[in-house]
Amino acid sequence: MDLSAIADNWRTLAALSAPAECAAVVKANAYGLGIDKVAPALWRVGARTFFVAHLKEAQQLRGLLPDATIYALNGLLPGTAGLFAASDIRPVLGSAPEIGEWSDYCRDNSVSLPAAIHVDTGMHRLGIALEEAARLSETYRMLGFTPSLIMSHLACADTPGHVLTARQRLVFADVVQRFPRVKASLANSAGTLMGREFRFDLVRPGIFLYGGVAITGVPPLRPVVRLEAKVIQVSTAPAGETVGYGATERLSRDSRLATVHIGYADGFFRAAGSTDARKGAEAVLAGRRCPLVGRISMDLATLDITDLAPDAVMRGDTAVFLGEGITVDELAQKAGTIGYEVLTALGGRYLRRYIGG
Ligand SMILES: *Cc1c(COP(=O)(O)O)cnc(C)c1O
User: Binding positions for substrate (predicted)?
Assistant: First the structure.
């Protein structure tokens, strides 16, 4: 995990976004990379506002960054307002009951605590409806709490030119006008890249910080993760034989194989395996791309090293599954998923080494 790359990627987005503030989304253990290392590295380069999903994540982050502004995107579950207040965590309030509960808590305790308000501009996942937002804009000064951020979330920002993105921006710009002096935030990574009119006062990038693709066709920033696995056996098999569970791939030539220490229990998706009908993921061994052959097992996967020199690969050598030009998004595509899922699935058995930062 290259913390310098994350720091550089944040600086790039912060420079692009100014004068809007560049926050950092570190939910799900900083997209699987390790919030305990990633969040302090981001703080050191200047990030001051952080978003996580859950209260638990926010409490952990508070322990790491005592002075950060922390928002919990998934908002308040019933009865948790006191826990948010105790750790100075700002809930992102996405429904009338949540707004009511935070308000009541503040009134009962004679404090006016900050919170974000999430307005649904068309994604229909979280957030108060537009009519509710309009009503709230007339009454929020009487509420017990202090709205510190009006936010919404883009549903299709990864797809260039999607009509919903343009519509959400217009709707959000209208909502924001009703809350003068409250900061506004609409953009995830993709939104941040789409231009000033999407950035408002604060941007909330996640995936782009971690070396993933944010918008289809727009190259990622610096890669962050290098994923390696050791070769535990080198063997040969004649043409016509099959490799792995289910015998899904038949060898078309006499082959040399390298079986490596990685499997779906490590979050290395089974869907990235190889069959006769569909080629799977690749790894770099001895400086060359080698294709997976056959299915990925729980703890093992097999690479075809026939095209390498006979003594190029030895037991104990390292195969690179991410890095050396293999991106998170390439691997994701081979597994029929997205870079976000490749990162957040990185398993607990890997030895994690952090460099830089
Ligand atoms: C996850 C998330 C983000 C960050 O999205 P990326 O696409 O990773 O940049 C921003 N805002 C909200 C509400 C999110 O849930």
Answer: 125, 298
